Amino acid sequence: MVKLKSNDDKEFEVEEAAVIQSEMIKNMIEDGCATSVIPLPNIDSKTLIKVIEYLNKHINMGKAAETGEEDDLKEFDEQFVNMGWEELFDVIMAANYLNIHELMELCCQSAADRLKNKSVRAVREMLKITNDLTEEEEQEIINDAPWAFEGPEIDDTVN
Amino acid sequence: MGSNFFINDNQDVLIEILKRLDGRSLGVCACVCKLWCGITRNDSLWEHLCFRHVSPPPEGVRTVVVALGGYRRLYMVCVRPVLNRLRKWRPIGMETDAEIVRRVYWTRHEVELSLSLFCVDYYERVLLGGGG
Question: Per the domain annotation, does B47 fall within a domain?
Answer without folding.
Answer: no
